[in-house]
Amino acid sequence: MRTLLTGANGFVGSSIRTFFESKNSEIIPVGRQEVINWQNIDSKPIGADVYIHTAGKAHDLKGKAEEREYFEVNVGLTQKLFHCFIRDKAARDFIFFSSVKAAASRVEGILLETDRFDLEDAYGMSKRAAEDWLLEQKLPEGRRLIILRPCMIYGQGHKGNLNLLKKLISWNIPYPMATFENERSFVSIDFVLQILDRFIANKKIPGGIYNVAEEGYMSTNDWIIKLSLEMGKKPKLWRISPKIIRGLAYLGDYLRLPLNSHRLKKLTENYRVSCEKLNKVMEYKRLI
Asked: Are 94 and 49 in contact (CB under 8 A)?
């Protein structure tokens, strides 16, 4: 099997590449800039069986990115790659890594694939726009479009807020927001790889949008305990007044501190995701 993979140097992309190469699949890595520079899509006879599109512009926790950048990358890049997929006669599956943030910036209950709430940031809006555009395209017979919406992915080499928590623990800095109680869905990179493998191997699984999450929920406090024990450290949790924490986060918005309002929200909000649809097509709940 020949697989075209974008974002092969990122956390998710590099894991996908290693996994499928270990199964003797040929991976064709394509960089973000390479796709951006494509002028004549017809001149790209790639001959891939599967297109996996993980490249994109992720959340900018520092707040420096412009809205235009998200749409240029997350929508424009997807459109170029999909046009190439349609013209590639060998290709059968187009697998787009979107995000649960394309459905909702915040979740009060449990998020379903059919939910569509107002969005609060350019990242989620650009991912939704890319999804909407893909779903509007006519697929030739025998082709399949799969849109995966993973929640926060963890595993070896993960980045973002989980990496920040690991740094706090390694520096022996107590987690100061233990007073916030939350429930979030997570998914391991190993689970994501198993999902991909099963989609590609089983052509009978219908295309469409799928939330990707493991069963159960974890709080940020749970993660502090889990990561601390894995690192051989004693968990340190401080229950500081929420008013003080929110004040520090507000200050961080202006002083570019590691703790700002966006990061506080990510670390303390509820974000529960249903994986019932995925469980049904995979025929049983646990894959690993």
From this structure: no
